[in-house]
Amino acid sequence: MSDQSFPGGHDCRAREIVDRVGDKWSLYVIATLGEETLRFTELKRRIDGISQRMLTVTLRNLERDGIIVRTMYPVMPPRVEYSVTPLGCELLGAVTALVGWAETRVETIEKNRAAYDERAAEQTEAFG
Amino acid sequence: MSDQSFPGGHDCRAREIVDRVGDKWSLYVIATLGEETLRFTELKRRIDGISQRMLTVTLRNLERDGIIVRTMYPVMPPRVEYSVTPLGCELLGAVTALVGWAETRVETIEKNRAAYDERAAEQTEAFG
DNA sequence: ACTCATGGTTACCTCCAGGTGCCCAAGGCA
DNA sequence: TGCCTTGGGCACCTGGAGGTAACCATGAGT
């Protein structure tokens, strides 16, 4: 798998970026930090539903990729700030385009799903 | 969660599209069908490593969303053709932009990861 | 002495995406 | 009679993503 070529001559390593963006919380973290630099607790407060652990894990992964940067001030209590790097800002831009398209089509897709489910139910009813 | 607003006023339902694209095989299926209409077995042959079940599952989901279309010919042995819809073509376009960006940055990200891991190893060595 | 806040870490558990393998219909063909 | 084909369905299993909760150091406030 690791050297599988993407159809059209694309590199499958690019899938890693889609995976990173596609996990449960990265998109929220990137988008939230894209607006302003924030501390850990404030970030947690803004992203409704995220657990402390998942925020830590997500931040670590994004930091490892160089998408966000972590700044620690050696004071007590600890003060840690997170912000997007230029690389992360680029990613945010690319993702925003995808999300923007998705928003314009989300209703179409939901109608498609409903229609599909209805057809499936009819099939089951007729032959089930 | 279902009514969580996306930072910046975005709708979290858009996450569903990212999830669809972010799963393991959808991207390959869309990209492969984006090149030409294909039958089930030929599609399976082109996407290296996919299992029969996962191809079926992925195709069903994409069909349900209206991203691909399934055409069945009632002959024996069965003949079924899959192709992308205009909606799927749009999605492919949006995703291609993201993948394109990812490809130009994949080496940067890998260097970032290596540097991060090295720093982490030094920390462990010094204090572990 | 006790409590609170920050920014975590760790152990533990659950759930499901994804993988494997067997079964199926129906006709052709030897 | 038995085996090949296509396009699946179904049962079962595992690994890992993600959730829960407890613990931690340190200093400041009272």
UniProtKB/TrEMBL annotation, chains A, B:
HTH hxlR-type domain segment(s): 12-110
Domain of life: Bacteria
Keyword check for DNA-binding: yes
PROSITE patterns: HTH_HXLR
This protein's UniProt keywords: DNA-binding, Transcription, Transcription regulation
Record flagged with keyword Cytoplasm: no
Alphabetized GO MF terms: DNA binding
InterPro entries: HTH_HxlR, WH-like_DNA-bd_sf, WH_DNA-bd_sf
Name of the protein this chain belongs to: Transcriptional regulator
Organism of origin: Actinomadura craniellae
